[in-house]
């Protein structure tokens, strides 16, 4: 949920222009236009981890994971992250276990949300073929892949890619940042149908560029 909501400049109608968001530890920050509606993000967290609701693993994950989500649809839903003609924004902060810290890499960051690297995409395809399953996401297209180097050793990646999901081509934009200690991943996902993303890419870039890691005193 939203940990902090701060007032931005006002529009001519007297409404707040932006929603300003920080995670519960106050280390990650971004803003979205006030035309977005907050939605429940727990279902998205479970999708990413593959854990069952109510399981012990899911309970432990909730202690290490913060997240929030925003939908610009007239009928907001967490499911719109995967496919929607309207923009969706999801942000999460994961405190990594010691085991996760030992294996985290730039490719792990690229694959944080959906399979991006060729190695993982081929592995998933092989597994689907072995079990006679149909892939839900097909037609992968990589649009942007660029490293991010921040002050004090923090680093990350920005990737933008297309997948066909339920008959529609959807564009996903992921920024994933690893803090300087290698102990926390902060990630921002912006998604929209491909035609929507092309038309509004500059707007989505402003949201992406507002995504920052904050250094706290001490």
Give the topology string: H per helix, E per strand.
EEEEHHEEHHHEEEEHHE
Mean pLDDT level:
89
**Unreliable stretches covering 5 or more consecutive residues:** 1-14
Give the strand content. Answer: 35-45%
State the separation between the terminal residues, measured CA to CA.
25 Å
The main pleated sheet reads as: 7 strands, antiparallel
* Overall strand count: 11
| Coarse shape | globular
Commentary on this structure:
It is a single chain. The protein has helices spanning 42-49, 56-64, 98-103, 106-110, 118-130, 194-199, 201-209; strands at 4-6, 18-22, 28-33, 37-39, 65-71, 88-95, 137-149, 155-165, 168-178, 184-193, 212-213. With 218 residues, the protein is α+β, with helices and mostly antiparallel strands. The strands form two sheets. Strands 4-5-6-10-9-8-7 form a seven-stranded antiparallel beta sheet. A four-stranded antiparallel beta sheet has the order 1-2-3-11. The radius of gyration is 17 Å and the shape is globular.
Features:
seven-stranded antiparallel beta sheet, 11 strands, alpha+beta, 26% helix, disordered N terminus, 218 residues, four-stranded antiparallel beta sheet
């Amino acid at each position: 949920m939203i940990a902090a909501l701060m007032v931005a400049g006002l529009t001519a109608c007297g409404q707040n222009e932006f929603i300003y968001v920080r995670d519960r530890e106050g280390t990650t920050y971004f803003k979205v236009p006030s035309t977005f509606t907050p939605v429940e993000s727990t279902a998205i967290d479970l999708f990413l981890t593959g854990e069952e609701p109510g399981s012990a693993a899911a309970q432990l994950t909730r202690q290490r994971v913060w997240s929030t989500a925003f939908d610009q649809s007239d009928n907001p839903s967490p499911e719109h992250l995967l496919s929607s003609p309207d923009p969706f924004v999801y942000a999460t902060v994961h405190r990594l276990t010691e085991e996760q810290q030992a294996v985290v890499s730039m490719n792990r960051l690229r694959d944080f949300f959906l399979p991006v690297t060729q190695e993982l995409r081929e592995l998933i395809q092989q597994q689907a073929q072995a079990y006679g399953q149909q892939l839900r996401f097909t037609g992968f297209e990589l649009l942007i892949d660029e490293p991010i180097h921040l002050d004090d050793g923090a680093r990350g990646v920005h990737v933008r890619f297309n997948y066909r999901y339920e008959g529609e081509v959807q564009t996903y934009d992921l920024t994933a940042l690893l803090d300087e200690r290698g102990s926390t991943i902060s990630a921002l996902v912006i998604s929209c149908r491909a035609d929507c993303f092309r038309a509004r890419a500059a707007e989505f870039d402003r949201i992406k560029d507002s995504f920052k890691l904050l250094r706290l005193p001490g």
